[in-house]
Design goal:
The complex is a heterodimer. Chain A is mainly alpha-helical. Chain A is about 75% helix and about 0% strand. In chain A, strand 1 and strand 2 form a beta hairpin. Chain A is globular, with a radius of gyration of 22 Å. By secondary structure, chain B is mainly α. The chains are: A mainly alpha, B mainly alpha.
Chain lengths: ~525, ~100
């Protein structure tokens, strides 16, 4: 017994196991939920949510304790895993999003009568997958992280087994998600081929050939227009653009958003998207940095298409979840514009662009979960309340939720004293600094249609008569979540300084830029 | 010895067949099978590169991809059964509750 303990202790201290603690906590608690779920009576099922919450808190504590290791750029497991500020920043977003979605899920599941422990366990497993996507510095780890997240999400999207729309959205999500994963895997196999066929000129032991450093060196050392590099670039980028739902790979998003349970819709649209963006950034800034001129135009084109289709398709929607799906496609366009600015090869543009991307993803998490939270609050027996008409007269039925809805919508549209404005400001500023004036103008102009459709939601809540719809009952958990979401959305807009510092902190990781 | 490029073209062909299957087929089970075909193309790629230079990472990656394909198929068939119980159809173009 004691030698097992000693082996474990030496694994945690010397073997790099300490770097895994945040993920370990989540896995332990998820397993615990699966075990104790059988012992719980139907009325005690909220205990699962409590366990999941505890897991998130413990994981956050472990993440916090890794901050010193992160500043020195710790890596472990034959450098297939890194713990850097980039990981800490995105890990923080995932944990916050998970905690908020757990708070919003408790009553939702009770009302839908699908209160099973697996729901929370799968959420924690998905979070583990996302963390590995960001901390992985090796193709295998990144791919497995992505799949852990994606497979958990397929099940969660179809969690309302008796609901036909939930079934249908799970099938669609599964087919398109697996398709995009296969495309990404094909790109990874070619990247591995590039890494394997290159000789490592540096001293010291060669890292595994799936390591990003090896592959970056391989891409750099090949003659410039190289067919294999281009094939890998195109397949990897399109696989990941599928996951973030950018045009032309966006068709799954509105269907999945509409059919999935609303807390899961919020979770998919925030956590899954942020994690895929983090992975995309990690690959573009290391492996594909030498060929950035090749992908810059591609990403810019996708960004313009996402802005155009996302904004114009959202105008005609009558379902709130569908409308927010299209609006989130347009937000993807803004983040991609930030990446375009960051890739233009000037230090200033890189810093501002990346800061804008990190800040945008951070505040996007809060505003979007907030918008879905209002939909969740209004849900009641037999009504998902996801049609625009279900919001009618919200200012009379529940003035507080009408006010927070207004704040989230203004922030999503990018109106000045709120978080969304600062995010758009940094991205447009970076575009102007790097000379992409036309893209900046386009990004600014698309705020106009966005204002129109966000205000359609606000109009239903504030100007229409309530009819005979009852006032919503808001639970304590929902109140806590709504106030936290609202607080950050307002605070990051009025006093953005600490949040911008946090976003800048996330940039301290070895990028392709370190050589310049 | 068969040159590596032959394996790569085989893999590219298999991958293309898989993509065409996903895009053109109506039955969701057949679409799932086409996705498996794409993942097998990836495995051929990995093992071919691995054999070319005698590095082991490609084998490891291929084993993980096989595991992942199994997990995806298990979850996928579960979801499809849940769907079939409520709708009595397996055809992609009859999934019209949500605008496709």
């Amino acid at each position: 017994m004691s030698h097992i303990f000693n082996a474990f202790r030496s694994f945690m201290t010397q073997g790099g196991g300490g770097l895994l603690l945040p993920e370990m906590m989540l896995v332990l608690f998820a397993m615990g939920i699966l075990l104790t779920d059988y012992l719980l009576e139907a009325r005690d099922k909220y205990f699962n949510a409590l366990m999941a919450m505890l897991g998130v808190i413990f994981s956050a504590i472990c993440l916090w304790q890794l901050r010193y290791a992160a500043e020195q750029g710790a890596s472990g497991f034959s450098s297939s895993l890194v713990v850097d500020p980039f990981f800490l920043f995105f890990g923080l977003i995932f944990l916050i999003a998970t905690a908020l979605v757990i708070l919003l899920s408790v009553r939702y599941l009770q009302v839908e009568d699908e209160n099973h422990g697996e729901y929370y366990a799968l959420m924690l497993f998905a979070t583990v997958g996302m963390m590995f996507m960001v901390s992985g510095y090796d193709l295998i780890v990144q791919f497995l992280g992505l799949e852990t997240m994606a497979i958990s999400f397929y099940v969660l999207a179809g969690f309302l087994r008796r609901d036909r729309r939930s079934n249908e959205c799970a099938v669609k999500y599964l087919l398109l998600g697996a398709f995009s994963s296969a495309i990404l895997a094909y790109g990874f196999s070619i990247l591995y081929g590039l890494g394997a066929t290159t000789s490592w000129p540096f001293n010291g032991p060669m890292p595994p050939r799936t390591n990003l450093d090896v592959i970056q060196f391989a891409v750099e050392s090949r003659a410039h227009p190289d067919l294999l590099v281009l094939l890998a670039l195109v397949t990897v980028i399109s696989g990941l653009l599928f996951k973030v739902a950018a045009v032309p790979f966006h068709q799954w998003a509105p269907d999945v958003y509409e059919g999935a349970p609303t807390p899961i819709t919020a979770y998919i649209s925030v956590a899954s998207k942020t994690a895929s963006f983090a992975l995309l950034l990690r690959l573009l800034l290391t492996v594909f940095w030498p060929v950035r001129l090749d992908w810059q135009m591609l990403v810019a084109g996708v960004a313009i298409a996402s802005l155009t289709i996302g904004n114009f398709a959202a105008i005609t929607q009558t379902n709130i979840k569908r409308l927010l799906a299209y609006s989130s496609i347009s937000h993807v366009g803004y983040v991609l514009l930030g990446i375009v600015a960051a890739s233009s090869g000037q230090r200033l543009g890189f810093m501002t662009g990346m800061k804008g991307v990190a800040f945008y993803l951070f505040v996007y998490a809060f505003m979007t979960i907030g918008a879905f939270a209002v939909v969740i609050v209004l849900q009641r027996q037999g009504l998902i309340s996801d049609e625009l008409d279900d919001l009618n007269g919200l200012h009379r039925r529940s003035p507080a939720s009408a006010v927070v809805l207004l704040i989230f919508m203004l922030s999503l549209a990018g109106i000045p004293p709120l978080a969304g404005f600062i995010g758009k400001y940094y991205i447009l500023l970076a575009l102007i600094q790097t000379g992409h004036n036309w893209l900046a103008l386009l990004g600014a102009l698309y705020i106009v249609p966005a204002l129109y459709y966000y205000f359609r939601i606000v109009m239903h809540a504030w100007l229409y008569e309530p009819g005979n719809a009852p006032s919503p009952v808001i639970t304590v958990g929902q109140k806590v979540a709504l106030s936290a979401l609202c607080f950050v959305t307002v605070a990051a807009g009025i006093y953005p300084e600490p949040f911008v510092r946090l976003a800048t902190y996330s940039l301290l990781f070895p990028t392709g830029f370190s050589g310049h | 010895m068969i040159p590596t490029s032959h394996y790569l073209f085989l893999s590219l062909g298999l991958f293309t067949i898989g993509v065409i299957g996903v895009v053109t087929r109506r039955n969701v089970i057949v679409i799932l099978m086409s996705i498996e075909l794409m993942l097998n193309a990836v495995n051929i790629n990995l093992v071919a590169f691995s054999r070319l230079v005698g590095s082991v990472e490609g084998h490891v990656f291929a084993i993980f991809i096989i595991t992942d394909a199994a997990a995806e198929a298990a979850v996928g068939l579960g979801i499809i059964i849940a769907f079939f119980r409520n709708r009595e159809t397996l055809l992609g173009d009859e999934m019209d509750l949500l605008k496709w």
